[in-house]
Amino acid sequence: MSQPLIEVSGLAMRYPTGRMALTDASLTVNAGELVVILGANGCGKSTLLRCVAGMLQPTAGRVTVAGSPISNLTGQRLADARMALGMVFQNANLVKRRSVIANVMAGTLGRHRNWKTALGLLPHSERPFAERCLDEVGLLGFADQRAGTLSGGQAQRCSVARALAQRPLALLADEPVAALDPEAAEGLMSLLKRLAHEDGLGILCVLHQPDLARRHADRILGMKDGRVLFDEKPSDVQEVAVSALYAKAPLETLPA
Ligand SMILES: Nc1ncnc2c1ncn2[C@@H]1O[C@H](COP(=O)(O)OP(=O)(O)OP(=O)(O)O)[C@@H](O)[C@H]1O
């Protein structure tokens, strides 16, 4: 099998407060695969995603993205490597007073570093590509509408289009359906699955909904107390293993 798109090995993260948020976490994400992380509040999911994105420097361990060792890079080389990773967050974070297409074109800015983009001007040569990204998420008809007029589900799709405009190899999604109703959540997960299966993106997605994970993920990773406890196909994940992720552990058993 070819090299994984994202490879995390032996990741540990101790915050300056002393909190050990990750302890020896390892995982892989292949191109064309949607991998979902499940785990209780505070188990280290966001910390893991932020280390993969190069937003946090882990205390130990290694993250490679398309063969580049993200965890060892700094400055411009880190910025270049991060272009391979599109981010989707709980909130769409659109500029509401700007058009939908302008928000998507903002995703191309990292690929155009010049005085115009430094002044916040959008590269209009990218409009056709931004339209393709909008089409991909089913919002082409909304291109010239103000982003503030989109529904929550549409806004989150627009944020996916903005991430795609970066031309990433992988998407990191941190609770992307947290603010969506069940139908919009189902639609967004179907979209992520299609982007993985049809467009070959590797997608690492944090969810708090085991049912959604079972319906859409290619693999489910269960995290607890900063560790990956299981990494299995949805059909192999036992209900009891999922329940154990959310069982409260006495404080003294948590890592220091
Ligand atoms: N900047 C920080 N400084 C100190 N401790 C932090 C920081 N960020 C997170 N933590 C702690 O690290 C642990 C893991 O946090 P993290 O946000 O990664 O968990 P999570 O699984 O994403 O939680 P949630 O599901 O609530 O988003 C928690 O105990 C949290 O309080």
From TrEMBL:
InterPro entries: AAA+_ATPase (IPR003593), ABC_transporter-like_ATP-bd (IPR003439), ABC_transpr_LolD-like (IPR015854), ABC_transpr_PhnC (IPR012693), P-loop_NTPase (IPR027417). Residues 6-250 form the ABC transporter domain. GO terms for molecular function: ABC-type phosphonate transporter activity; ATP binding; ATP hydrolysis activity. Pfam families: ABC_tran. One of its GO terms (cellular component) is plasma membrane. Keywords: ATP-binding, Cell membrane, Membrane, Nucleotide-binding, Translocase, Transport. Gene3D superfamilies: P-loop containing nucleotide triphosphate hydrolases. This is Phosphonate ABC transporter ATP-binding protein. The lineage of its organism: Bacteria, Pseudomonadati, Pseudomonadota, Alphaproteobacteria, Acetobacterales.
